[in-house]
Amino acid sequence: MGRLTAVPQLPTADPYLPGHGDPSYAVRHYDLDLAYVPDGNRLTGTAVLDLVVLQDTPRLVLDLAGLRAGKLRLDGARVKKWSARERRLVLQLDRSVAAGTPLRLTVVYGGSPKPVIDRRHGDAGWEELEDGVIVAAQPHGAPTWFPCNDRPDDKATYRITLAAPTGYAVVSNGTLAAHQRHASAESWTYVMDRPMSTYLATVQIGRYATTDHGPRTRTIAPPDADLAGSFDQQPAMLEFFERVFGPYPYDGYTAVITDDDLEIPLESQSLSTFGRNYCKPDWSHVRLIAHELAHQWYGNAVTLRRWRDIWLHEGFACYAEWLWSEESGGPRTCDAWARHHHERLADLPQDLVLADPGPELMFDDRVYKRGALALHALRVAVGDEAFFGVLRDWAGSRAGESVTTDDFLDFASARTGTDVAGLLRPWLYDVALPGFPQG
Protein backbone atom coordinates (compact mmCIF):
# COMPACT_ATOMS: atom_id res chain seq x y z
CA MET A 1 0.00 0.00 0.00
CA GLY A 2 1.33 3.41 -0.93
CA ARG A 3 1.91 6.06 1.70
CA LEU A 4 -0.62 8.92 1.75
CA THR A 5 0.73 12.44 1.53
CA ALA A 6 -0.99 15.02 3.71
CA VAL A 7 -2.28 18.06 1.86
CA PRO A 8 -1.31 21.24 3.73
CA GLN A 9 -4.30 23.06 5.15
CA LEU A 10 -5.08 26.39 3.55
CA PRO A 11 -5.19 29.45 5.79
CA THR A 12 -8.23 31.19 7.23
CA ALA A 13 -7.79 34.75 8.45
CA ASP A 14 -11.10 35.07 10.33
CA PRO A 15 -13.13 32.20 11.86
CA TYR A 16 -16.36 33.92 10.83
CA LEU A 17 -15.31 33.44 7.19
CA PRO A 18 -13.59 30.05 6.80
CA GLY A 19 -11.50 29.56 3.70
CA HIS A 20 -10.82 33.25 3.09
CA GLY A 21 -7.72 35.36 3.67
CA ASP A 22 -4.04 34.69 4.23
CA PRO A 23 -2.51 36.47 7.26
CA SER A 24 1.07 35.88 6.05
CA TYR A 25 1.01 38.87 3.69
CA ALA A 26 -0.81 42.14 3.00
CA VAL A 27 -1.74 43.77 -0.29
CA ARG A 28 -0.87 47.45 -0.54
CA HIS A 29 -2.38 48.16 -3.98
CA TYR A 30 -4.60 46.43 -6.54
CA ASP A 31 -4.48 47.40 -10.22
CA LEU A 32 -7.35 45.72 -12.07
CA ASP A 33 -7.73 45.89 -15.86
CA LEU A 34 -11.00 44.17 -16.80
CA ALA A 35 -13.27 43.66 -19.78
CA TYR A 36 -16.86 42.45 -19.58
CA VAL A 37 -19.19 41.11 -22.28
CA PRO A 38 -22.81 40.77 -21.07
CA ASP A 39 -23.66 38.31 -23.84
CA GLY A 40 -22.51 35.08 -22.21
CA ASN A 41 -21.47 36.82 -18.98
CA ARG A 42 -17.76 36.81 -19.82
CA LEU A 43 -15.17 38.58 -17.69
CA THR A 44 -11.46 38.74 -18.51
CA GLY A 45 -8.86 40.56 -16.52
CA THR A 46 -5.32 41.22 -15.46
CA ALA A 47 -4.74 41.91 -11.77
CA VAL A 48 -1.48 43.35 -10.48
CA LEU A 49 -1.07 43.12 -6.71
CA ASP A 50 1.67 44.98 -4.86
CA LEU A 51 2.09 43.15 -1.59
CA VAL A 52 4.41 42.81 1.40
CA VAL A 53 5.17 39.66 3.35
CA LEU A 54 4.17 39.92 7.03
CA GLN A 55 5.40 36.52 8.25
CA ASP A 56 8.18 34.35 6.90
CA THR A 57 6.35 32.07 4.45
CA PRO A 58 7.05 29.52 1.71
CA ARG A 59 3.56 29.98 0.27
CA LEU A 60 1.07 32.63 -0.80
CA VAL A 61 -2.65 31.90 -0.96
CA LEU A 62 -5.12 34.13 -2.82
CA ASP A 63 -8.89 33.96 -3.01
CA LEU A 64 -10.41 33.49 -6.49
CA ALA A 65 -13.82 31.83 -6.86
CA GLY A 66 -15.40 30.60 -10.10
CA LEU A 67 -12.78 32.14 -12.39
CA ARG A 68 -9.69 30.51 -13.86
CA ALA A 69 -6.18 31.90 -13.73
CA GLY A 70 -4.35 31.36 -17.00
CA LYS A 71 -0.98 32.96 -16.29
CA LEU A 72 0.78 34.47 -13.32
CA ARG A 73 4.11 36.12 -12.62
CA LEU A 74 5.72 36.95 -9.29
CA ASP A 75 8.41 39.62 -9.08
CA GLY A 76 10.63 39.51 -5.99
CA ALA A 77 10.48 35.76 -5.44
CA ARG A 78 10.28 32.57 -7.50
CA VAL A 79 7.19 30.39 -7.80
CA LYS A 80 8.01 26.67 -7.70
CA LYS A 81 4.47 25.67 -8.69
CA TRP A 82 0.95 27.00 -8.42
CA SER A 83 -2.50 25.47 -8.46
CA ALA A 84 -6.20 26.23 -8.00
CA ARG A 85 -7.70 24.63 -4.92
CA GLU A 86 -10.90 25.22 -2.94
CA ARG A 87 -11.65 28.64 -4.51
CA ARG A 88 -8.04 29.65 -3.88
CA LEU A 89 -4.84 30.14 -5.84
CA VAL A 90 -1.96 28.48 -4.03
CA LEU A 91 1.54 29.66 -4.92
CA GLN A 92 4.31 27.39 -3.61
CA LEU A 93 7.58 29.34 -3.55
CA ASP A 94 11.00 27.79 -4.13
CA ARG A 95 12.08 28.97 -0.68
CA SER A 96 10.67 30.79 2.34
CA VAL A 97 10.35 34.55 1.85
CA ALA A 98 11.23 36.76 4.80
CA ALA A 99 8.84 39.14 6.51
CA GLY A 100 9.14 42.65 5.09
CA THR A 101 9.81 41.47 1.52
CA PRO A 102 7.88 43.45 -1.13
CA LEU A 103 6.46 41.41 -4.01
CA ARG A 104 4.47 42.12 -7.16
CA LEU A 105 2.06 39.46 -8.41
CA THR A 106 0.40 39.58 -11.83
CA VAL A 107 -2.53 37.26 -12.53
CA VAL A 108 -4.27 36.90 -15.91
CA TYR A 109 -7.68 35.31 -15.46
CA GLY A 110 -11.22 35.03 -16.77
CA GLY A 111 -14.46 33.11 -16.99
CA SER A 112 -18.15 33.49 -16.25
CA PRO A 113 -18.41 35.08 -12.81
CA LYS A 114 -21.21 34.13 -10.44
CA PRO A 115 -22.03 34.64 -6.77
CA VAL A 116 -20.53 32.56 -3.99
CA ILE A 117 -23.26 30.76 -2.05
CA ASP A 118 -22.68 30.22 1.66
CA ARG A 119 -25.23 28.64 3.98
CA ARG A 120 -24.47 31.14 6.75
CA HIS A 121 -24.10 34.33 4.73
CA GLY A 122 -26.17 33.73 1.61
CA ASP A 123 -25.15 34.83 -1.89
CA ALA A 124 -22.46 37.44 -2.48
CA GLY A 125 -20.36 38.66 -5.36
CA TRP A 126 -20.75 39.25 -9.08
CA GLU A 127 -24.36 38.83 -10.18
CA GLU A 128 -26.11 39.35 -13.51
CA LEU A 129 -29.15 41.63 -13.57
CA GLU A 130 -31.83 41.76 -16.23
CA ASP A 131 -29.55 44.12 -18.16
CA GLY A 132 -26.29 44.74 -16.36
CA VAL A 133 -24.29 43.62 -13.36
CA ILE A 134 -24.31 44.18 -9.64
CA VAL A 135 -21.43 43.34 -7.30
CA ALA A 136 -22.47 42.84 -3.68
CA ALA A 137 -19.32 41.59 -1.97
CA GLN A 138 -20.11 41.71 1.74
CA PRO A 139 -18.78 39.62 3.34
CA HIS A 140 -17.33 36.98 0.98
CA GLY A 141 -18.00 38.03 -2.63
CA ALA A 142 -14.80 39.87 -3.64
CA PRO A 143 -13.08 36.71 -4.99
CA THR A 144 -15.85 36.28 -7.59
CA TRP A 145 -14.35 39.06 -9.71
CA PHE A 146 -10.69 39.54 -8.79
CA PRO A 147 -7.90 37.57 -7.05
CA CYS A 148 -7.41 39.02 -3.59
CA ASN A 149 -6.44 38.53 0.01
CA ASP A 150 -10.04 38.49 1.21
CA ARG A 151 -9.91 39.63 4.82
CA PRO A 152 -11.38 42.86 6.19
CA ASP A 153 -8.22 43.99 7.96
CA ASP A 154 -6.14 43.97 4.76
CA LYS A 155 -6.85 47.41 3.30
CA ALA A 156 -5.28 48.61 0.08
CA THR A 157 -5.58 51.32 -2.55
CA TYR A 158 -7.13 50.48 -5.93
CA ARG A 159 -7.09 51.39 -9.59
CA ILE A 160 -9.96 49.70 -11.44
CA THR A 161 -10.42 49.85 -15.22
CA LEU A 162 -13.35 48.04 -16.83
CA ALA A 163 -14.39 47.99 -20.48
CA ALA A 164 -18.01 47.24 -21.37
CA PRO A 165 -20.07 47.52 -24.58
CA THR A 166 -21.09 50.99 -25.67
CA GLY A 167 -24.30 52.10 -23.98
CA TYR A 168 -23.43 50.72 -20.56
CA ALA A 169 -22.20 52.91 -17.73
CA VAL A 170 -19.61 51.48 -15.34
CA VAL A 171 -19.42 52.74 -11.77
CA SER A 172 -16.76 51.83 -9.24
CA ASN A 173 -15.11 53.10 -6.07
CA GLY A 174 -13.40 56.45 -5.84
CA THR A 175 -12.77 59.09 -8.49
CA LEU A 176 -13.40 58.65 -12.21
CA ALA A 177 -9.90 59.16 -13.63
CA ALA A 178 -10.54 58.29 -17.30
CA HIS A 179 -13.40 57.45 -19.67
CA GLN A 180 -12.50 56.36 -23.18
CA ARG A 181 -14.72 55.44 -26.12
CA HIS A 182 -13.62 52.75 -28.55
CA ALA A 183 -15.23 51.28 -31.66
CA SER A 184 -17.78 49.14 -29.84
CA ALA A 185 -16.91 49.56 -26.19
CA GLU A 186 -16.18 52.13 -23.51
CA SER A 187 -13.60 51.85 -20.75
CA TRP A 188 -13.88 53.47 -17.34
CA THR A 189 -11.03 53.94 -14.86
CA TYR A 190 -11.62 54.66 -11.18
CA VAL A 191 -9.02 55.38 -8.52
CA MET A 192 -9.58 54.77 -4.82
CA ASP A 193 -6.59 56.35 -3.09
CA ARG A 194 -7.79 55.68 0.48
CA PRO A 195 -7.30 52.26 2.09
CA MET A 196 -10.20 49.90 1.29
CA SER A 197 -11.11 46.37 2.36
CA THR A 198 -11.71 43.84 -0.41
CA TYR A 199 -15.40 43.38 0.43
CA LEU A 200 -15.99 47.10 -0.14
CA ALA A 201 -14.61 47.06 -3.69
CA THR A 202 -17.28 46.98 -6.38
CA VAL A 203 -18.28 47.63 -9.96
CA GLN A 204 -21.84 48.30 -11.08
CA ILE A 205 -22.77 48.07 -14.78
CA GLY A 206 -26.02 49.23 -16.36
CA ARG A 207 -27.76 51.60 -18.72
CA TYR A 208 -27.68 54.57 -16.40
CA ALA A 209 -27.90 58.35 -16.42
CA THR A 210 -26.20 60.63 -13.89
CA THR A 211 -27.95 63.20 -11.68
CA ASP A 212 -25.68 65.55 -9.74
CA HIS A 213 -27.25 66.70 -6.47
CA GLY A 214 -24.39 69.02 -5.62
CA PRO A 215 -20.61 69.12 -5.78
CA ARG A 216 -20.14 65.88 -3.80
CA THR A 217 -23.28 63.76 -4.19
CA ARG A 218 -24.75 62.16 -7.28
CA THR A 219 -27.17 59.42 -8.24
CA ILE A 220 -26.59 57.08 -11.17
CA ALA A 221 -29.88 55.49 -12.14
CA PRO A 222 -32.18 54.48 -15.01
CA PRO A 223 -33.11 57.67 -16.91
CA ASP A 224 -36.77 57.50 -15.84
CA ALA A 225 -36.11 56.97 -12.11
CA ASP A 226 -37.98 59.42 -9.84
CA LEU A 227 -35.57 60.66 -7.16
CA ALA A 228 -37.86 63.20 -5.51
CA GLY A 229 -38.26 62.84 -1.77
CA SER A 230 -35.67 60.07 -1.51
CA PHE A 231 -32.26 60.36 -3.11
CA ASP A 232 -32.46 64.12 -3.50
CA GLN A 233 -32.11 64.26 0.31
CA GLN A 234 -28.50 63.08 0.12
CA PRO A 235 -26.84 66.54 0.13
CA ALA A 236 -28.73 67.48 3.31
CA MET A 237 -27.84 64.12 4.87
CA LEU A 238 -24.18 64.62 4.01
CA GLU A 239 -24.15 68.13 5.48
CA PHE A 240 -25.80 66.92 8.70
CA PHE A 241 -23.55 63.87 9.11
CA GLU A 242 -20.48 66.06 8.65
CA ARG A 243 -21.68 68.14 11.60
CA VAL A 244 -22.11 65.13 13.87
CA PHE A 245 -19.51 62.67 12.49
CA GLY A 246 -16.84 64.99 11.11
CA PRO A 247 -15.59 65.60 7.55
CA TYR A 248 -16.76 63.19 4.87
CA PRO A 249 -13.85 60.78 4.32
CA TYR A 250 -13.84 60.66 0.49
CA ASP A 251 -13.93 63.04 -2.46
CA GLY A 252 -17.56 62.29 -3.37
CA TYR A 253 -20.48 59.97 -2.79
CA THR A 254 -22.51 58.05 -5.36
CA ALA A 255 -25.78 56.17 -5.06
CA VAL A 256 -26.36 53.64 -7.84
CA ILE A 257 -29.96 52.60 -8.52
CA THR A 258 -30.43 49.41 -10.50
CA ASP A 259 -33.38 48.93 -12.80
CA ASP A 260 -34.14 45.76 -10.84
CA ASP A 261 -35.67 45.75 -7.38
CA LEU A 262 -33.27 44.79 -4.59
CA GLU A 263 -34.23 43.36 -1.22
CA ILE A 264 -31.56 45.33 0.67
CA PRO A 265 -29.14 48.13 -0.27
CA LEU A 266 -25.48 47.33 -0.75
CA GLU A 267 -22.62 49.06 1.01
CA SER A 268 -19.36 49.89 -0.79
CA GLN A 269 -16.64 52.46 -0.21
CA SER A 270 -17.63 55.91 -1.56
CA LEU A 271 -20.84 54.51 -3.09
CA SER A 272 -23.93 52.50 -2.25
CA THR A 273 -26.29 50.51 -4.46
CA PHE A 274 -30.07 50.39 -4.25
CA GLY A 275 -32.88 48.88 -6.27
CA ARG A 276 -35.46 50.97 -8.08
CA ASN A 277 -37.89 50.06 -5.28
CA TYR A 278 -36.04 52.51 -3.00
CA CYS A 279 -37.15 55.52 -5.05
CA LYS A 280 -39.90 56.26 -2.55
CA PRO A 281 -40.25 59.07 0.00
CA ASP A 282 -41.56 56.91 2.86
CA TRP A 283 -39.39 56.54 5.95
CA SER A 284 -38.81 52.79 5.55
CA HIS A 285 -36.80 53.55 2.41
CA VAL A 286 -35.28 56.93 3.28
CA ARG A 287 -33.82 55.58 6.52
CA LEU A 288 -31.71 53.12 4.52
CA ILE A 289 -30.40 55.89 2.28
CA ALA A 290 -29.16 57.55 5.48
CA HIS A 291 -27.89 54.22 6.81
CA GLU A 292 -25.70 53.50 3.78
CA LEU A 293 -24.30 57.03 3.72
CA ALA A 294 -23.33 56.75 7.41
CA HIS A 295 -21.32 53.64 6.59
CA GLN A 296 -18.84 55.84 4.76
CA TRP A 297 -17.58 56.93 8.19
CA TYR A 298 -18.32 53.79 10.20
CA GLY A 299 -17.51 50.68 8.21
CA ASN A 300 -15.61 52.13 5.26
CA ALA A 301 -13.19 54.73 6.65
CA VAL A 302 -13.00 52.95 10.03
CA THR A 303 -13.36 49.23 9.39
CA LEU A 304 -13.60 46.24 11.68
CA ARG A 305 -10.55 44.05 12.05
CA ARG A 306 -12.64 40.96 12.82
CA TRP A 307 -16.12 40.13 11.60
CA ARG A 308 -17.25 39.51 15.19
CA ASP A 309 -17.16 43.30 15.70
CA ILE A 310 -19.78 44.01 13.03
CA TRP A 311 -21.76 46.12 15.54
CA LEU A 312 -19.08 48.81 15.05
CA HIS A 313 -20.52 49.20 11.54
CA GLU A 314 -24.19 48.38 11.82
CA GLY A 315 -24.92 49.83 15.27
CA PHE A 316 -23.39 53.16 14.24
CA ALA A 317 -25.22 53.28 10.90
CA CYS A 318 -28.51 52.36 12.57
CA TYR A 319 -28.02 55.14 15.11
CA ALA A 320 -27.41 57.51 12.20
CA GLU A 321 -30.90 56.63 10.92
CA TRP A 322 -32.42 57.74 14.22
CA LEU A 323 -30.36 60.94 14.22
CA TRP A 324 -31.49 61.76 10.68
CA SER A 325 -35.13 61.10 11.59
CA GLU A 326 -34.93 63.73 14.32
CA GLU A 327 -32.96 66.20 12.19
CA SER A 328 -35.28 65.92 9.17
CA GLY A 329 -38.59 65.94 11.05
CA GLY A 330 -39.09 62.22 10.47
CA PRO A 331 -41.49 59.90 12.25
CA ARG A 332 -39.70 59.92 15.65
CA THR A 333 -36.95 61.63 17.59
CA CYS A 334 -33.76 59.70 18.21
CA ASP A 335 -34.76 58.93 21.80
CA ALA A 336 -38.19 57.80 20.69
CA TRP A 337 -36.66 55.39 18.15
CA ALA A 338 -34.38 54.05 20.88
CA ARG A 339 -37.37 53.41 23.16
CA HIS A 340 -39.36 51.86 20.33
CA HIS A 341 -36.63 49.38 19.42
CA HIS A 342 -35.80 48.59 23.02
CA GLU A 343 -39.41 47.51 23.51
CA ARG A 344 -39.27 45.40 20.36
CA LEU A 345 -35.97 43.75 21.33
CA ALA A 346 -37.39 42.86 24.74
CA ASP A 347 -39.97 40.68 23.00
CA LEU A 348 -37.41 38.83 20.87
CA PRO A 349 -35.23 35.84 21.82
CA GLN A 350 -32.36 36.73 24.14
CA ASP A 351 -29.69 34.51 22.59
CA LEU A 352 -27.28 36.98 21.00
CA VAL A 353 -23.97 38.39 22.28
CA LEU A 354 -23.53 41.71 20.50
CA ALA A 355 -19.72 41.73 20.50
CA ASP A 356 -19.51 38.14 19.24
CA PRO A 357 -22.82 37.13 17.63
CA GLY A 358 -21.40 34.24 15.59
CA PRO A 359 -21.32 33.99 11.80
CA GLU A 360 -24.95 32.88 11.54
CA LEU A 361 -26.22 35.97 13.41
CA MET A 362 -23.71 38.63 12.38
CA PHE A 363 -26.29 40.34 10.14
CA ASP A 364 -29.25 39.69 12.42
CA ASP A 365 -31.35 42.84 12.86
CA ARG A 366 -30.83 42.60 16.62
CA VAL A 367 -27.12 43.39 16.06
CA TYR A 368 -28.15 46.63 14.34
CA LYS A 369 -30.68 47.73 16.92
CA ARG A 370 -28.84 46.60 20.05
CA GLY A 371 -25.66 48.18 18.73
CA ALA A 372 -27.49 51.48 18.26
CA LEU A 373 -28.94 51.18 21.75
CA ALA A 374 -25.45 50.66 23.17
CA LEU A 375 -24.45 53.98 21.60
CA HIS A 376 -27.57 55.60 23.01
CA ALA A 377 -26.59 54.32 26.46
CA LEU A 378 -23.18 55.95 26.04
CA ARG A 379 -24.79 59.21 24.95
CA VAL A 380 -27.15 59.27 27.92
CA ALA A 381 -24.28 58.56 30.33
CA VAL A 382 -21.72 61.12 29.08
CA GLY A 383 -23.93 63.82 27.49
CA ASP A 384 -24.19 65.10 23.95
CA GLU A 385 -21.00 67.14 23.83
CA ALA A 386 -18.76 64.28 24.92
CA PHE A 387 -20.70 61.67 22.92
CA PHE A 388 -20.53 63.46 19.58
CA GLY A 389 -16.91 64.35 20.32
CA VAL A 390 -16.21 60.63 20.56
CA LEU A 391 -17.97 59.93 17.25
CA ARG A 392 -16.11 62.70 15.41
CA ASP A 393 -12.69 61.92 16.86
CA TRP A 394 -13.10 58.17 16.37
CA ALA A 395 -13.94 58.58 12.68
CA GLY A 396 -11.27 61.20 12.12
CA SER A 397 -8.33 59.73 14.02
CA ARG A 398 -8.85 56.09 12.95
CA ALA A 399 -9.72 56.68 9.29
CA GLY A 400 -8.04 54.13 7.06
CA GLU A 401 -7.53 51.70 9.93
CA SER A 402 -9.04 48.41 11.04
CA VAL A 403 -10.30 48.34 14.62
CA THR A 404 -11.85 46.16 17.33
CA THR A 405 -14.49 46.63 20.01
CA ASP A 406 -11.74 46.98 22.63
CA ASP A 407 -10.15 49.74 20.54
CA PHE A 408 -13.41 51.68 20.63
CA LEU A 409 -13.97 51.14 24.34
CA ASP A 410 -10.45 52.29 25.17
CA PHE A 411 -10.78 55.30 22.87
CA ALA A 412 -14.14 56.38 24.28
CA SER A 413 -12.94 55.91 27.85
CA ALA A 414 -9.88 58.08 27.26
CA ARG A 415 -11.90 60.71 25.40
CA THR A 416 -14.66 61.01 28.05
CA GLY A 417 -12.85 60.11 31.28
CA THR A 418 -15.55 57.47 31.83
CA ASP A 419 -15.23 53.69 32.24
CA VAL A 420 -16.97 53.04 28.92
CA ALA A 421 -15.98 49.36 28.94
CA GLY A 422 -17.80 48.90 32.25
CA LEU A 423 -20.75 51.00 31.10
CA LEU A 424 -21.28 49.08 27.85
CA ARG A 425 -20.31 45.61 29.05
CA PRO A 426 -23.95 44.50 29.62
CA TRP A 427 -24.90 45.68 26.12
CA LEU A 428 -21.91 44.03 24.46
CA TYR A 429 -21.31 40.82 26.37
CA ASP A 430 -24.47 39.85 28.26
CA VAL A 431 -27.16 37.83 26.53
CA ALA A 432 -30.00 39.47 28.46
CA LEU A 433 -31.13 42.86 27.20
CA PRO A 434 -30.22 45.65 29.68
CA GLY A 435 -32.87 48.11 30.78
CA PHE A 436 -33.49 51.24 28.78
CA PRO A 437 -30.75 53.85 29.39
CA GLN A 438 -31.82 56.39 32.02
CA GLY A 439 -30.21 59.79 32.36
TrEMBL record:
InterPro entries linked: Aminopeptidase_N-like_N, Aminopeptidase_N-like_N_sf, Peptidase_M1, Peptidase_M1_aminopeptidases, Peptidase_M1_dom, Peptidase_M4/M1_CTD_sf
Q: Where is the Aminopeptidase N-like N-terminal domain?
A: 28-200
EC class (word) = hydrolase
Provide the reaction this enzyme catalyses. Release of an N-terminal amino acid, Xaa-|-Yaa- from a peptide, amide or arylamide. Xaa is preferably Ala, but may be most amino acids including Pro (slow action). When a terminal hydrophobic residue is followed by a prolyl residue, the two may be released as an intact Xaa-Pro dipeptide
Record-annotated Peptidase M1 membrane alanine aminopeptidase domain positions: 231-427
Q: Matching CDD domains, A to Z?
A: M1_APN_like
Is the Protease keyword given for this protein?
yes
Keywords, A to Z, come to: Hydrolase, Metal-binding, Metalloprotease, Protease, Zinc
EC number(s) recorded for this UniProt protein:
3.4.11.2
Q: Which cofactor does it need?
A: Zn(2+)
A Pfam family matched by this chain, by name? Peptidase_M1_N
- Gene3D superfamilies from the xrefs? Neutral Protease Domain 2, tricorn interacting facor f3 domain
Q: Which domain of life is it from?
A: Bacteria
- SUPFAM superfamilies (UniProt xref): Leukotriene A4 hydrolase N-terminal domain, Metalloproteases ('zincins'), catalytic domain
Similarity comment: family membership: Belongs to the peptidase M1 family.
Q: Which PANTHER family match?
A: PROTEASE M1 ZINC METALLOPROTEASE
State the name under which the record lists this protein: Aminopeptidase N
Report the source organism: Nocardioides humi
